[in-house]
Write a structure and sequence with these properties.
Elements lengths: L17 H11 L4 H6 L3 H15 L5 H15 L2 H13 L5 H8 L6 H15 L6 H9 L4 H24 L15
Helix pairs in contact: 3-9, 4-5, 4-6, 4-7, 4-9, 7-8, 7-9
Length: 183
């Protein structure tokens, strides 16, 4: 059971959050618990959706964004986000089980994506204090300065969702995947 109340339906959410949740429903075909939880603060929901939407317009491919989310969720110990992003990685980004397993370990079976995922994992582990060598490696793999900034922002956004779900103990509404255990 969640440690913070989660509105049971869109209608139970604060009035200012309802249009935002309806947009989530239209896009995803459902309103996952994370969104309903965050809707308790309309400002937080607006900020989350705004940043998510802006990053979706960036230049990192959707599969790479999911790979980063998996690495961050595993590193931060968030079962909710690991479950959600395992589902999204498999069903939307079309990543296979071997790739998802590698992503959870901070790697990828795709050489270019491996650099982004490894860099993201280092950003989490080192709380942003990555070495010159780590930055140089991701850039040598073909990521430009804007993409490096996007990778760091994806780490930040995913860390925020990891933390809110961990603080709230959000009920997992995806097939459950547990940190530290093979999928």
């Amino acid at each position: 059971m969640s440690r913070l109340p989660t509105p049971a339906t869109v209608a139970d959410a604060p009035a200012a959050s309802r249009p935002l949740l309806e947009a989530v429903n239209k896009q995803l075909g459902a309103v996952p618990n994370l969104f309903r939880l965050v809707s308790t603060s309309p400002a937080a929901l607006e900020g989350y959706l705004g940043l998510s939407g802006a990053l979706a317009k960036g230049t990192l491919p959707a599969p790479t964004r999911e790979r980063i989310a998996l690495a961050v969720a595993e590193a931060n110990g968030c079962d909710y986000c690991l479950s959600a992003h395992s589902y999204l990685a498999k069903n939307l980004a079309k990543l296979d089980d071997a790739e998802i397993a590698a992503n959870r370990l901070g790697h990828s079976n795709d050489p270019k994506a491996d650099s982004a995922v490894a860099f993201a994992a280092k950003v989490v582990r080192e709380r942003g204090h990555v070495s010159d060598d780590a930055l140089r490696a991701v850039k040598l793999a073909g990521y430009d300065d804007a993409q490096v900034i996007e990778i760091v922002l994806h780490v930040g956004l995913n860390t925020w969702t990891n933390y809110i779900n961990s603080v709230a103990a959000t009920e997992i509404d995806f097939p459950v995947v547990t940190v530290g255990k093979a999928a």
